[in-house]
Sequence to fold (124 residues):
Amino acid sequence: MFSFEHVAIIVKDMDESINFYEQVFGFEVRFRKKRSDREMVFLFLKNAPQFEIELIQDIDPIRSYSTAGVVNHLAFRVEDLQKAIDFINEHSSLNIPPDIKPGAEGQMILFEGLNGEMLQLIEK
Fold:
């Protein structure tokens, strides 16, 4: 009856956000549209094309939509958690502290992305 569509994230800088998700997690741009009031980009992963992230940047943030809504987190599975943390720290402006915690099935880390979105890495 239901299937996953996408997760939307309000971003501050569209090009920086696209670059982050491409360079760090391997997403690719599927669709990009800029209107007079808003720019939207849909990103996908080749190995999971049904999972998309929509990035939204309001050009003139006059509506509450530009800041409304919170994504609890985006979770990514990794083979080696410490290597993934090191990779993100090398390929982005983020500096993720090595605060690895036990997860439900292995270990994980939560950290804030470029736009305040919560990101999670899971090593099972």
